[in-house]
Structures are given as structure tokens and as C-alpha cells.
Design a protein that fits this description.
This protein is of the alpha+beta class. It has helices at about 15-45, 50-60, 65-80, 130-140, 210-225, 230-235, 240-260, 270-280, 285-290, 295-305, 350-365, 375, and strands at about 1-10, 90-95, 100, 110-115, 120-125, 145-155, 155-170, 175-185, 185-195, 200-205, 265-270, 310-315, 340, 350. It binds zinc ion.
Length: about 375
């Protein structure tokens, strides 16, 4: 079984003034309580038990319930280990003891939240999106569980983030189609499909737009910083990571929908360790490599595939970029430059990312413990 968590973000449906004030005041007290614990952690104690001893009783005097104080303490410790000294407007982390969902099919759904004025119930909006309705239905039918959530203040509007957890069986079937995914910097992802022993499809995801936007952003950022334009520096925070995340979502979605078109597909990705060791370009390239989140792309592919019941496997892709996918000859000089691959042994020429993605398929094919007959041979691959 594999755990899969989906987050649904829903605005609270017009809480009346009294309820709204209670929730906002609770959020403020919660932030204050976290700061109080942070001070305690930095000055006196940094273990859960010591911090509890030190801060619990004073925090309770502030009107927060025991569960809210515990939630604040845990949050403060996490922040302390990250080196964070102060916080404001932090989402209120809700566990099973602090919130309750009341889901009904015919009338409004409610969420109960423990505040400094006791538990209050606020309706969820009736106009939910279809996928949100589907997740709530899964909770009611017992297909999924929701034991944690967050209350978030978005510039005065209150939102609830529900973390819906599914337990899914890991798909186990004999693959008929192998989809090799090579990750890189110049091409963010190169996908090649091996079906019936021939490479039937190749697709590249170019990274140039991301590189260009990042360059523009860095230039603007240094200008704003030297001009003392703090407002723009603050506003641009997270822009590049948002763009990376968006691209990762698009790429992973495309790969999984491609896999769905084939019968019994398996998506094969190289393990992260391999990528870091393999790509050792200039310092500039390395910086780009680390800011580009391979781990995120892998996890996106993994969970999107799991939802559709598609297998994902990892291979140790040592030498995939310098090995010839035609004859298997491996040499550093086979890879002429970033884009161009030419085998010294057999003279095979190809795009180097394509060559690597085919090698990933081959490595998986050779290591697969049980193989259907057509996967058994180690014959030459047909070139696209
Ligand atoms: Zn060769």
C-alpha cells in the first residue's frame, strides 16, 4: 500500500462577524504562541518535553486550548530546527482533535474548528468544483480519510486546506510498454517510448524558457535590491519556484497521459543520485541543476501515475549519458557536447538526451526480474 495525499483548498462560506472574529483572533493567538515557544526554544530548551514544561501553562492562560498549544509547540520546534526566529500570519494546523468535518450530501457541509471561544461550525461553500466534491464524497464513503487540515488567512479571507489521504495498492503487472524519462537541464525531460521492441515516440521538454525567465528575474531582483525597492523584492518572492512547480505539473501530467495511451505501461526514471553524479557541468549549470527541482518532478510523476494505476520504477542510470544506445559502447568522449552524441565505436549519432532516455529503458529492461517474452531479448533497438 502506498499513501497518497491530495490537498483541497476551499474558502469558508461567509462566516458571520462573531465567528470570523473568533477565527482571526485564534489565528493571531496561535502565531503569538508559536513566537513564545520559539523564544523559549532559542533561550532555554529545545526538546519537546522541556519546551512543554517551560511554556505550556503560560500559553494556556492566553485562552488557547491544550490541543492548540500542543500544535503551536510542534510547529515552533519545526521552525526552530530550520533556524526561524519569528513568524506572523502562520496557518493554523488542525489535527483530528481541533477540527471536525460534517459532510452531508443534500445540505451544506460544515467544518467545526476549536477556537479561543470554543468550537464553532462554519459552512463550506455550496459551489465546490467537481474534483473537490469527488474528494469529499470519498471521505464520506470511507475511500479516503481526512485527519489534518490548515486554516489560512489570505489577506483577510479565511480558507481551509483539507489534506485528503488515500491508501492505494502499488500496481504490479507485467509491463508491455516502457516509457523512459531522462531528466536534465538543457532539456528538462526527454521521454522515449519502447513498445514492441521499437522506439515509437520521442518527446523533449525544453528548459530554455525557464532559464530565460530565471535570468530576467535575477537581473530585476538585483536592480530592486540595489534601489532598495523592498516591496518588489517581497512581491517577487517565490515567482521562480512557482514557475518551476507549474512546469513540473505540466510535464508530469503529459507523461502520465502519454503512458495511459498504452496497454500495461511502466514509467522508468533514473534515480536522483544518478542525476546529481552524472551532470557535472560548469558551476553555473550546477547551480541551475539544484534550483530545478528533479525531486519534485519525480514525485509529481509518481503520484499522478499512482492515481491512474500506472507503474513507476527507478533505475540506477550510471553512464546512461556516455553509453551508446545502439552498441553499448561506453566512453566519456562519446558525448561530444551538451546536445550531440556520437559513438566512437559504431558511429551512431543522436541527440544526447534521446540517447540517455533509451539507455534508461535498456537498463530497466535488462534488470527487470521477470520479463514478458518480447522484453527478454537484448537485440538492437530500432531507431526512430
Ligand atoms: Zn555505438
Amino acid at each position: 500500500m502506498v499513501g497518497l495525499t491530495k490537498t483541497i483548498r476551499i474558502p469558508l462560506h461567509e462566516p458571520n462577524k462573531g465567528k470570523y472574529d473568533s477565527l482571526i483572533n485564534t489565528l493571531n493567538r496561535y502565531s503569538e504562541c508559536i513566537n513564545f515557544h520559539l523564544d523559549g526554544a532559542f533561550l532555554y530548551a529545545d526538546s519537546k518535553e522541556e519546551l512543554h514544561e517551560l511554556c505550556y501553562h503560560s500559553s494556556r492562560l492566553d485562552g488557547l486550548s491544550a490541543n492548540l498549544v500542543q500544535s503551536a509547540r510542534d510547529r515552533a520546534l519545526e521552525m526552530y530546527w530550520k533556524g526561524c526566529t519569528h513568524t506572523s500570519n502562520v496557518p493554523l494546523r488542525l489535527n483530528q482533535r481541533i477540527f471536525k468535518l460534517v459532510l452531508r450530501d443534500d445540505t451544506l457541509n460544515l467544518i467545526g474548528i476549536t477556537t479561543i471561544n470554543g468550537r464553532i461550525y462554519v459552512p463550506l461553500p455550496p459551489y465546490l468544483r467537481p474534483y473537490q466534491k469527488r474528494h469529499l464524497k470519498d471521505i464520506t464513503s470511507g475511500k479516503a480519510t481526512c485527519n489534518s487540515a490548515e486554516l489560512v488567512d489570505r489577506e483577510g479571507d479565511l480558507w481551509i486546506h483539507l489534506f485528503v489521504k488515500y491508501e492505494l495498492d502499488k500496481p504490479q503487472y507485467q509491463p508491455k510498454t516502457i516509457i523512459g524519462v531522462d531528466l536534465g537541464v538543457s532539456k528538462l525531460a526527454t521521454v522515449s517510448v519502447l513498445s514492441k521492441d521499437a522506439v515509437s515516440k520521442v518527446n523533449f521538454f525544453d528548459g530554455s524558457e525557464l532559464r530565460f525567465r530565471r535570468k530576467c528575474y535575477k537581473r530585476s531582483l538585483s536592480e530592486w535590491q540595489s534601489n532598495g525597492n523592498d516591496a518588489m523584492v517581497r512581491r517577487s518572492k517565490g515567482k521562480i519556484s512557482n514557475l518551476s512547480t507549474h512546469l513540473n505539473h505540466c510535464i508530469s501530467k503529459w507523461i502520465v497521459s502519454l503512458a495511459k495511451q498504452y496497454s500495461d505501461p511502466v514509467i522508468v526514471i533514473e534515480s536522483l543520485k544518478g542525476i546529481r553524479e552524472r551532470i557535472k557541468y560548469s558551476k553555473r549549470m550546477n547551480a541551475e541543476l539544484h534550483s530545478w527541482s528533479f525531486a519534485q518532478l519525480q514525485s509529481f510523476i509518481e503520484y499522478k501515475a499512482l492515481e491512474k494505476g500506472i507503474r513507476v520504477e527507478y533505475v540506477d542510470a550510471k553512464n546512461t549519458s556516455r553509453m551508446c544506445c545502439n552498441c553499448g559502447h561506453s566512453h566519456k568522449s562519446n558525448r561530444r557536447d551538451q546536445a550531440h552524441f556520437k559513438c566512437l565505436e559504431c558511429g551512431y549519432e543522436a541527440n544526447s538526451d534521446f540517447n540517455a532516455s533509451v539507455n534508461i529503458v535498456k537498463v530497466f529492461r535488462e534488470k527487470a526480474p521477470t520479463q514478458p517474452t518480447w522484453l527478454g531479448g537484448r537485440g538492437e533497438l530500432n531507431r526512430p
